[in-house]
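[job 4471] stage=fold_predict status=RUNNING
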Amino acid sequence: METKILEGKNIAGDLQKKIAEKIQMLTATGLPRPCLCAIQTSENPASAWYIGQQEKLSARVGIDFRKVPVSEVANEKALIEKVRALGEDRSVHGLFISMPFPAGVDADKVLLAMDPRKDVEGVHPTSLGLIVLRRGKLIPPTAFAAYTLIKSTGIMLRGKKAVIIGQSAIAGRPLQLLLGEARVTTTICNTGTSTEDIRKIVNGSEIVVACAGKPGVVRGEWIKQGAVVIDIGTTEVDGKLQGDVDFEGAVKRAGFITPVPGGVGPLTVTMLMENLMTAYDWQTAHA
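[job 4471] inference complete, writing structure tokens
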């Protein structure tokens, strides 16, 4: 079987087209455009880049985009006040708050100040709790992108065994819940799992998701023949992005595999926009 490379940009392009078409239909009936507001809390280059990607995609599909600069949220009090004000602003349908927060800012206080109905990053406790209750609508985009790529393979998920290496709140943990909903038996590996145990678990899994942020933590020879391999890891090494999976080794055994870069990453911002459309639909229906 020839290994299929799962490139996020292909799926992203199809979803973006659907979003753009829906927005055209909405505006044709006199409804307002969906509006996304991004709060930049620091000068972190990665955060600035991600917000820039949101702005570019918004312009492409017809979403109104606003940005709150660092200067307007210079301390915790100002940030919380801005988050609350945007929660009350009915012209804003989705809110993105860049993380990590600057030193001295209580992340819990900021997130709890946000209106969970506008939580396009799926990081509010309400958003994550609803996923646990099987009622989740706003899913962390990274986990959402990984799950979408897994489903794009067309394989029957029910009854499969999966392993997730890493258990962050925006990737590993929500993805475990999503796969559980699809009746996949999932094992979580973390820093407390020995290399030998990871090897055995990976070798017995039809789906492998790596999101530990450790380049090469999953070796190619561990991969089960024909498995789906989703590499979320992105670590800069000598000026180049590297994933958590030994791609050159894994591509010889996997049935489907994501490259780094080019796999999960290009799809993540599109899934954020999918969340925005979900938030918009709910808010306009209950206006």
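[job 4471] summary: The chain has a mean pLDDT of 96.
[job 4471] exit 0
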